[in-house]
Amino acid sequence: YNRDVASATWWASLRILLRWRGSIWKSVLPELILYLAIYYIIFGILWWREYWNNITYEKYYNITWTPEQRETKVEERTLIDDPYIISLVRNYGSDYSVPLIMLLSFFTTKAFERWQYIFNNIAYAENLALTVNAFIKGSDRIAQLARQTVMRQAILAQILVYRDVSISVRKRFPTMESLIEADMLKPDELKMLESSFNPYNVFTIPFCWITTLLTKLRQDGNITGEPTYVNLFTEMKEFRKKLETVYNYDCVPIPLAYPQIVSVAVRIHCMVVVIGKLFIFARNEGYWMLNANFALVNGPELLIYLAWLKVAEILANPLGEDDDDLELNHIIDRNNFLSRSIIEAHDLCPILE
């Protein structure tokens, strides 16, 4: 949506609010409609009962308020008759919103930090491809195949990591045979992977192949000089380090108890608001009446809390299938295309004039 906010105008803000994909409306609207439906179903039942039985709430009016309060204040009550519970629910919004805000704020902050760190550790292949293209010398078929193999195996390792952390990548490459069909894995390499008996970090095996290949190229003279050799290993290690960071973050998520307590707290708050705002005290009429304006007065409150929770839940797993999650399949395709393009441009440059 960056193009929609190219200028800070009211129209740009309106265009953002009207977007559907990835918006709070798409995330929150079904649950918000559910809470409003629950409220108005209860509202309809009580209204129907009041209509036929002519129920008034004068006892609450007489017991709860002093004459001065009856003249000046408008308050809510619940269907519960216990005075302590009535007071608790009536004052719920002011007494308990601060802890809820703190829970949501801390959860959102940690989720965003996690999202940002994962984003900063997405492995892009340009640096490695440029280093391979510059430092592995030779125009013969073996040297060209070696450069292509180094980059293909590096991206193969990336796919193996992303298959474990992303459902969308797993759907694209459901089996190891699908990697062969995509020309990212050779049949003999598959046999080596299957014979490795490595239940942990199988993506390290392609890097072992790369290190062995680089060592052979160094011995054959395709890599000249120790600094060049070390530089190749440094770029490869940086690429592998980013993959390992993403893998480790997926293995150790935010402790389950915290998103659970935040989710439960927000939804309990919404249910208490739904029940607690059924009645309001009508100052002019002098009795308790059903609150028909809940959607206008309290609906925005539910919308904000639910949207806040949904934002935190989306940020907590940036490798999922939400609209604004990181598109790892696009990153894989991008790395594959750019690395091939860079390798094919070996020893090519414009003529100096």
Please tell me about this protein's structure.
This protein has helices at 10-17, 24-53, 58-64, 67-72, 83-90, 92-120, 126-135, 141-165, 167-172, 176-181, 187-194, 204-220, 226-251, 257-276, 294-297, 299-316, 328-344; strands spanning 76-77, 279-282, 287-290. By secondary structure, the chain is mainly α. The chain has 2 domains: 39-119 and 257-316, no CATH class; 123-253 and 330-344, no CATH class. Strands 1-2-3 form a 3-stranded antiparallel beta sheet. Helix 2 (24-53) runs antiparallel to helix 16, helix 8 runs parallel beside helix 13 and helix 12 packs antiparallel against helix 13 (226-251). It is elongated.
Topology at a glance:
Layout: H1 10-17, H2 24-53, H3 58-64, H4 67-72, E1 76-77, H5 83-90, H6 92-120, H7 126-135, H8 141-165, H9 167-172, H10 176-181, H11 187-194, H12 204-220, H13 226-251, H14 257-276, E2 279-282, E3 287-290, H15 294-297, H16 299-316, H17 328-344
Antiparallel strand pairs: 1-2, 2-3
Helix pairs in contact: 2-14, 2-16, 6-14, 6-16, 7-13, 7-17, 8-12, 8-13, 8-17, 12-13, 14-16
